[in-house]
Design a protein that fits this description.
Structural class: alpha/beta
Strand order of the largest sheet: 3-4-7-8-9-10-12-13
Distance between the termini: 28 Å
Number of domains: 1
Bound molecules: flavin mononucleotide
Radius of gyration: 18 Å
Low-confidence stretches: none
Mean pLDDT: 95
Strand content: 15-25%
Number of strands: 13
Shape: globular
Largest sheet: 8 strands, parallel, barrel
CATH class: Alpha Beta
CATH superfamily: Aldolase class I
CATH topology: TIM Barrel
């Protein structure tokens, strides 16, 4: 079915196709049922029970409008966001580009979103329905780097009551200066501040929320290790490896590879796997890791688990292979 529909979907501009898909799922979530053969392979991690190991990666549903749809598609969990304190339009269009030959995407959306507070209200309404929802937070484009910590603190406090887990995003390439937060001193400052906020909220609300750090595939090994050490020192529970890359590996079409932005899909896979393996070696076996980046087949999913991932996420694979991929992957890495 998806194979038959794909040429028509791909005739649309990439952002238009994305908008239509997410809004269709939001307005008719029950219709997603036809595509799904949901896999029940419960995994308990960070005190949370995931229905299976395959989750939706951040960015597909930034505002959390289609939570029921993702659940019906068979995802074990969904990460929404990135959301910022204030709503913002993102970068000028066009800003999403498909490279069909390599099944990759380059995007420079720039955190277009409706603001964290609206997102929180939506998630609060969905909470009873049983899908695990992580919320990924970032900073506004027009917030100065000196004020970045305040944006993260605002987002953290807003999502804390409703998010099953919280992801700190310091790795998107499309907000100028954001990735500078991965440098030692800046990361130490940010995560130290958030650790204080977290302790206060955990006390006040009598609930502990797992916190994950999402990192870039463009860090060198020393950078990965130091980010991991700083994060663990501040009580971060686990890592998401990785965000999109600013590199342009061979194999991309000349037309698309010249576009500015973050690259996702199979050409990202090797870098994402390297970061994941480096984190696993650095953190030992007990720290939860989510593998993401170019996972598009059962073999790729199994390889990512062998690299050390506890859970997987996907975005670009869904665009090229359709919703049936979710359960194919979940079945491939099922323990039961
Ligand atoms: C169009 C698009 C938008 C994205 N937006 C976000 C975002 O807002 N926050 C984030 O942390 N990651 C974002 N990502 C990165 C994905 O969550 C994921 O880390 C990356 O695409 C690699 O996975 P994939 O190869 O399965 O797509 C985005 C990716 C794409 C393609």
């Amino acid at each position: 079915m998806f194979r038959a529909a794909r040429p028509f979907i791909f005739r649309l501009d990439a952002e238009r196709a994305h908008w239509l898909t997410v809004h269709a799922l939001a307005n008719a979530p029950w219709a997603a049922g036809w595509a799904a053969d949901p896999v029940d392979d419960p995994v308990t991690l960070m005190g949370l029970r995931f229905r299976n190991r395959v989750g939706l990666a951040a960015g597909m549903d930034k505002d959390g409008i289609a939570l029921e749809g993702w659940q019906r598609l068979g995802f074990g969990f969904a990460e929404i966001g990135t959301v910022t304190p204030r709503a913002q339009p993102g970068n000028p269009k066009p800003r999403i580009f498909r490279d069909v030959g390599s099944e990759a995407i380059i995007n420079r959306l720039g955190f277009n979103n409706g603001g964290v507070d609206a997102c929180v209200q939506r998630v609060a309404r969905h909470r009873a329905k049983g899908m695990l929802v992580g919320i990924n937070i970032g900073r506004n484009k027009d917030t100065s780097p000196e004020q970045a910590v305040d944006d993260y603190r605002y987002g953290f406090e807003a999502v804390y009551p409703v998010a099953d887990y919280i992801t700190i995003n310091i790795s998107s390439p499309n907000t100028p200066g954001l990735r500078d937060l991965q440098a030692e001193a800046a990361l130490d400052g940010l995560l130290g501040a958030l650790a204080d906020t977290r302790a206060r909220l955990a006390d006040a609300k009598s609930v502990h929320r797992p916190v994950l750090l999402k990192i870039a595939p463009d860090l060198d090994d020393a950078g990965i290790r130091s980010a991991a050490a700083i994060a663990l020192k501040h009580g971060i529970d686990g890592f998401i490896a990785t965000n999109t890359t600013i590199a342009r590996p061979p194999g991309l079409s000349a037309k698309v590879s010249g576009e500015a932005g973050g690259l996702s899909g199979p050409p990202l896979a090797e870098k994402a796997r390297h970061v994941l393996r480096t984190l696993r070696a650095e953190c030992g076996t007990s720290v939860p890791l989510i593998g993401v980046g170019g996972i598009d087949s059962p073999e790729a999913a199994k390889a990512r688990i062998a690299d050390g991932a506890d859970l997987l996420q996907l975005y670009t694979g869904l665009v090229y292979h359709g919703p049936g991929l979710v359960s194919r992957l979940a079945r491939a890495v099922s323990t039961s």
